Model the fold of this input.
Amino acid sequence: MRRALLGLFAAAAGAAIALVFVRRRVGRLRFQRGLATAQLAVRGGIRYAGSAPRLFASAGESRQQLRLDLAMQTADDVTATLGTMKGVMVKLGQMASYVDDGLAPAVRRTLSRLQDSVPPMSPQLAAGVIEAELGTRPERAFARWDPEPIAAASIGQVHRAITRAGVAVAVKVQYPGIAETMAADLDNVALLRRMLRITAPSQDVDGLIAELRDRVLEELDYRREAANQRALHEYFDGHPTISVPAIIDELSTRRVVTSELAIGARFADLASWPQAERDLAGETLYRFVFRSLYEVHAFNGDPHPGNYLFHGDGKVTFLDFGMVKHFTPQDLYPLMQMARHLCVDDDPGQFRASLEEAGFLVPGAPLNDAQITDHLAVFYQLIRESRPVTVTSDYASAVVRRFFDVRSPVAQYARIPRSYVILQRINLGLFALLGDIHATANWRAIAEEIWPFMQAPPSTPMGAAELPWLASRRAAVSRA
Done:
């Protein structure tokens, strides 16, 4: 993962070439997208081959600057190409823009454009989707409609509007044909299967791919997204720092979802705020993820920087609930037991047993408890001890490296059960975001507030501010 993104996409393109030219019976769309990826790799290869003599002849700062220039040119090409392709390929670029610490900051900034500003569809296409879904042109469906989008991402773009009732709203409009586009990408599974078998040779690769496919395709039904957002809005309503915009039901359909408009600073702006503000924002992100998981039994599996708006004093608005995984109490119980046995009881034997019960470890593997704990402890490092810890980019990178580490003797016996695949975005996403802003907190004390088996008293001013909201939530549950 410390390799530049250029290598990742070169590998992807190589597989795409094989898919395009070895398999004769492929759909036109699948062919076109495989070819676009292959052409991206070819352009990168030509670019680097043409610069090889200069790289060979250069030294020191001159060579480093030449490499950076090449990386920037390739990043621009990747961003433009994937932005045009949209769908699954944009999601790959989005994730790499905030996870891959091997990229130079300037290159990551270039790729970060994929988070909320890929090339939009034309106003006419957007209006056509509105008319098909709502039965009338946007100018009639809304009192005011801005034909220029305020954000454009992997599956749809967002427009400002004013409803007939005078409410300012954000209207997400799905790209026409994106369902077919994403299906074509997901059907090209040879690359993904090959990568998973290299990085996780002991895993049920087909099961992992099936789970990822299900979660990605669920995003295409905005009615599901609206239901997810509605549930989280209702749960967090009244929370002192967490806000989820309300859904406007009568203006939401399969390909259009309308919610109250939220305005705030983007993640890139947060990086320039005082560290105290960044710490508060990080605490809110952490509380949102784990309160959602343990109390709503849901996890929003798309924690990339474009999905947050920041307002200061720890207040954050959360956006985009297309990729939400719902869990049963039975799913969550072993996760709680793992945290309890390792972090609270400090019992490696019981930690191992809970891993085996959940399906994360092959029962009876020829490993001692210390080996297992050493291998997996990095994922729990923030909450092993009750003390302030600063999340750094180095820590986030260590988590990513351990996730893909096939050299460890534990790796061949480790598993990711299908129902928990999406939770790995905590390791690959949330920690990367917290590392980017160097968020500091006593994460263990906050976790103890949230863990259902502890529900400890507040450990921070934000935790204390939660108390009235928490009491009202629990009273509502008791009445129900």
